[in-house]
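Problem 3 from the worked examples.
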Amino acid sequence: MCGIIGYLGYREAYPILLNGLKKLEYRGYDSSGIAVFRKRKYNLYKTKGKVNELEKKISFYKIKMKGNTGIGHTRWATHGIPDNINAHPHVSNSNELFLIHNGIIENYHAIKIILSKNGFIFKSKTDTEVLVNLIEFVQKKNKLSLEEAVRISLNEIVGAYSIAIVDKSNPEIIVIAKLGSPLALGINEREFFISSDPVSFVNYTKNVLYLRDGEMAILRKDKDLDLRKIRDNHKLNPIIKELQINLKEIEKGNYKYFMLKEIYEQPKSIRDTLRGRLLIPNKNIDGLICIDGIESNKDIFINAKSITIVACGTSWHASLIGEYLLEELARIPVEVEYASEFRYRKPILGKKDIVIVISQSGETADTIEALKLAKKRGAFVFGICNVVSSYIARNVDAGAYTHAGPEIGVASTKSFTAQITVLTLLSLIIGKYRSTITNNRYQYLCKELKSIPEKVSQTLKIDDTIKNISQLYCHVNNFLYLGRGINFPVALEGALKLKEISYIHAEGYPAAEMKHGPIALIDEKIPVVFLSTKTGQYKKIIGNIEEIKARKGKIIAIVNEDDIQISMLADHIIKVPKISEELNPLITVIPLQLLAYQIAFLRGENVDQPRNLAKSVTVE
C-alpha cells in the first residue's frame, strides 16, 4: 500500500523522484522520504505528512539534491506510527545500505531478536528497518556482494514485499525484488525507472517490465538488465512490454480532484468496457456478446455447479450486484465472499465450481490469496480487473479487463460501474448459453446496455441538484441509505463513498430491514437516501418512505424522470433516466457518487486522499 520510486541513469534523480512520489501519493501519504546518491555521498530527507511537506522541507534547507541515483517512498503505516523516524528510506546500522519497501515482513520480530543479539540497534518500529539490517548482517558476515546478500536474506523472509536497495559505497547499482507487492521497471537506454505503479514514469518511457513474484533485478549504470530468480539465482530473460497509458488519463485537467474527473469519465469508461464485446443490435443484426475468456471456456460455464465471487470493498459491492444478475439471468447459484474471510475458511469447491475474483488493481492481497486457495481446491478461476499484467490478470484461468483506464482517486467510482458492466455482459452471455433467458429478453437487455453511456451522461447533468442538497446536509453526523433488490448493493456503495471521503457515519441497508433495527435511529436530524426507481418493488418502497416520514426523517429520493408518487412524499428528489431493473445500478450509483463528493468538498476534505486509506491494498 506504500509507493516506491527509484531512478538510476544519467539524469538528475531528484526531480524524477519527486514527480513520481506525487503521482504515487494515492498509495500512501502518512510520510515520505527521498535519498539521492552521488559517488560516496548522499542526501536523505524524510518527513511525516504528504509529499508537499517533504518538498517544502528540502526547499527550506536549500539542499541541492544532486546525483544520478535515488530512491523515494510514500508510506501507508503498518508497523509504527507515521513519523519522521518510521518514514522510508531506512538505513542500516553502518549507514551504508538504504532501503525502501512496500509490504509486510511477517517474521520480522524473530529476525529482530537475532539481530539484536548480534549488536544491531533499531531506531524505528518498522519491519523495514529489520530487513535492511538483515541484509547488512548477511552481507558482512559472509563477505558477499549486495545482490547476493539481498537474495539470501529474502529467502529467509516470510511475508510480502517489493523493495529497492542501494549501497552508498557503490551507488551505480540498485537491487530490486518482488513477492506479493507490485513492482514495475521502466527501461530506456542507459537508465532505469523503478515504481509501484508505472503511471509515475510514463512521461519518461513506455518500455516496462513487470516483475513477477520471486524475481529480483540488478540494475547497473550503463549495463543491461540482470533479472534473476530469488530462490536459486537462475538467470531469466526479461519480457519488456509497451506501456498502454495516455498521459491525459493520469492528469486532472480542469477538475479540482481526480475523483470528480473519474465520475464524469464514466460514460467513456463504460463505453470502452463494452467496446468489442457487445455487437450493437439493430433492425438487421441481433445483439451479440463476445468475451474471449467465456467463449474459450463455454462448457465450463454451461456446466457450472456454482459460482463464488470473491472481492473486497467497492468490488465486493459490485459482486453483490453480479450475484443478482447471474442468478436472475443465468440461473446459477452464486455466493459472494469477502476475500479477507474466504482465505481463512475451508470453502467447499470442486472442479465444477467457478470462482470469480474481482479487483480494480489486480494486486489486492486478500483477493490474490483467495485466488490461490481456489486454484488449490481445483476450481476454475475467472478474473475481472482493470490493470494489465497485474498478478490476478496473469494467474487466473481466464478473465476480462474492465478498460476503465487509470483510477487515481482512492474512492473507486468508474471502476465500480466498469465491473458491473462486465458482470452484466457475463450474466447475459452465460444465460444465453444455458438457455435460461429468452432471446427476446436477451435482445432487449443488449439494447438497454447499449444505451447506458448516454443515460449516464444525462444523469451527470443533475450536479446542481446534488450541490443544493449537499449544502443542506454537509454537517450532519449520520446518513442512512436504503434500497431493495438489485439496488440494495448500490445503497451499500453510496454509504461507503460518503464514509470514505467525508468521514460522516453512513449505513446501507435493505429497505425492508429498516424495521429490524435502523428505524431506531430515525429523527428529524437524519437524512435517509432512498433508491426508489420504478422497479418491481416500487410500492414496497413507498411504504418504507411513509414509515420514515412518520418519524420525521428527511428523505432524499432517487427517482425516475416520470415519477409522481414518491416525488410528492420526499423532501428532495433526484431524477434519473429510466432503465430496465437489471441495469439500474449503473444509473442509480451516479448521484450517490456525486453526493459523497459534494459533501466532502463542502466539508473541506481532501477528496482524493482520505485519511487512513490507500488505493491499492497490497498488504493483509
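Problem 4, a separate protein:
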Amino acid sequence: MTVVPDVSTGGRTYGLLAYLYGPGRRDEHTDPHLVASWMPGLTPDPGRDPTATLKQLTDRLDLPVLALPKHRRPARHVWHCPVRTAPGDRHLTDAEWAEVARRIAHATGIAEEGDDRACRWIAVRHADDHIHLVATLVREDGRRPRRHNDGIRAQAECRKIEAEFGLQILNEGDRTAAQRPTSAERAKAERAGRTATAREILHERVRQALSGAASEEEFFRRLAEAGLRVDKRLAPSGDILGYKVALPGDRNRHGEPIWFPGSKLAPDLSLPKIRQRLHAGLSDDNATLNNHPGDPLRPARARREATHIAEQATVALAGDNDAESAAHLVGVGELLDGLAQTSPASIRKELTQAARAFERATRSHIRAERADNRAIRSAARGIIRAGNALGKGEDGGATAMLLSTMVLVTIAAARWHSARGHAQQAAAAQQAAQHLRSAYRQAAATPMNAMREQGRSLAESVRQRYATALEAALPEQAGHLRREPGWDALTATLVQAERAGHDPETLLQQAIAWRELDTADSVTDVLVWRLRRIGNLPATTGTPRARTGIRPTQQQPRTPKPQAYEPSVRTEPRATHPLNARR
C-alpha cells in the first residue's frame, strides 16, 4: 500500500461530502459508499441507501461541533485524509479498507479504540484503490482531539498495514522532506491547466535561484528575474528577517496573492538556512572561465571544470567525514539545478527531473555545518554564468563528459545514504541516476558515434597495441571491455592522446586509478571521458590540443573514405609528462 496520508483540514463538511459522493472532476468516481464509520450500521450512507441524503450525513458528523457555542467552534473543523494503494497492488475488499480506516483513525488520535467520546468519522470508497477518511474535530465531550503529528503517525501505521497485508512497503520518512502539495492545491493546478502546483513551481524556482548564488542580494535578484513575486519581511532597522514568494496570478478567493514562506517550501529554503549556505562564499576554481567572458566555448569550459570537481565529490562520498559528504550532496544538488537550467532542450526535461529527484537526497539529519563545499557551488555558478549550451560539437561532448560523471556521483550518493539507513534519500538518488543515464545517452550519441567511427578506421596493429595496453591495466576485464560499444571510441581517444604528446599507457593507468569503475554502466565510456578530461583533449574528435612544449604529429589529410592509419612510433624512451588527474 503506497499509503500516502495527505492530511488536511477545511471548514465545509457538506462540500467535501458532495465531492466524495459525486461523479468526480472527470467522472472517475464509481460506486461511492461507506466502508466504515464511528457508528457502523447507524450512519446514513447516501451511496447505498436511497432515502439517505448528504445533508443528513453532514448533520450527523457536525452535531458535536454545532453543540458548542459559536465562539468556541473551530473555523476549520473538517479533517480529511485520503489513503491509496500503489499501482500494481491488489485491490482491497471493503472489509479490509474498513480495518485500514479504523487503524488510521486510532493511530492519529481521531478515534482511539475503546474511546466512546471520540470524534465522529467516516470512510468513503469511490474507487478500487483508495478511500477517504473524513472526521469532525470536536469530540462528543466537546473537547478537541489530540492529533499532534497526525500525518507522521498515519504514515507509521500505514507501514505496518503494508507489511501485514502483503502490499508494497514505502520507505520511512525522517521529517526532512519538503512539504507535499495538498489535495486542494493539486486540484487548483488541474483547473488552471498546470502540470505542477504553485508550491512545486515555487520550490523549484527558489532552488534554482539559490544554485551557485554568491550573495543574498544575488539570490533575491534571481527570484525577481524568474518572474516571482517576492515579499521581504523587514525589521525596523531595515534588515531582512524573512521572505515569501508567490506566482503571478495565483490568488485566493479574495483576490490576494497566495504567499509561500521559504521554510514552507522546504526546510533548507528558509532565510537563515540560505544564509548559512551563502556565508561560506565561493571558491576561485572557475576563475579561468570568468576571465574569458567572450569565449564562445564558455559552456563547454564550465562543464569540463565542473566534471573535475564532481569527480572530487565522489571521492568525498566514499570517505568517513559525514559532515563533508552532506555538504557535497548540497553542492551536487546545486550543480544539477544549474545543468537543468542551461542544458540543451533535448535533454533539459530529463535533467530537470533528475534535479527534482536528487533534491530529496540533499537533506538528512546529518548536518553540513563547517564543511567546505565552495568548489562545487562555484562550479554550479560557473555553469549558470556561462549560459545555455547548444549540445553540438565541443559543447555537446563536454555535456556528455559531465553527465557521465554525474551518474557516478548520484550512485555514490545512493550508496552513502543506504549505508546510513536513509532509505528515502537513497531511493531519490537512484531515481536521479536513472534520469541522468537517459540524458547521458542522448547527449553522448553524436560525439560517441563519431569517435567509434574513427576508432573502427584504425589499422588493426594499432587497435591491437591498445588492446594489449588495456589488458595490462585491467587484465580481468579487458575481454569484456573490448566487446563494449565504447571500445572503438576508447581506441580513438588513445590515438588522439598519443598524437597530442601523451603516453597513452600512462594516461590510461591514470584514468583507471582515479576512481572505481564497478558502478559504471559502460566502463569504456567512462574511460573515454576521463582520458579526454585529464589529457585536456577535445570532447569531440578532431584536431587534438597539443601539450605545452610537445609538437603534435602532422594531421592526416582528409580522404573520401576513412583510412586506416597508425600513429607515429617513437624510437626512443619518452619522458613521462605530469598529469593533473589528482589535485
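Solution to problem 4. Residues 192-279 form one domain. Residues 285-291, 543-583 have pLDDT under 50 and may be disordered.
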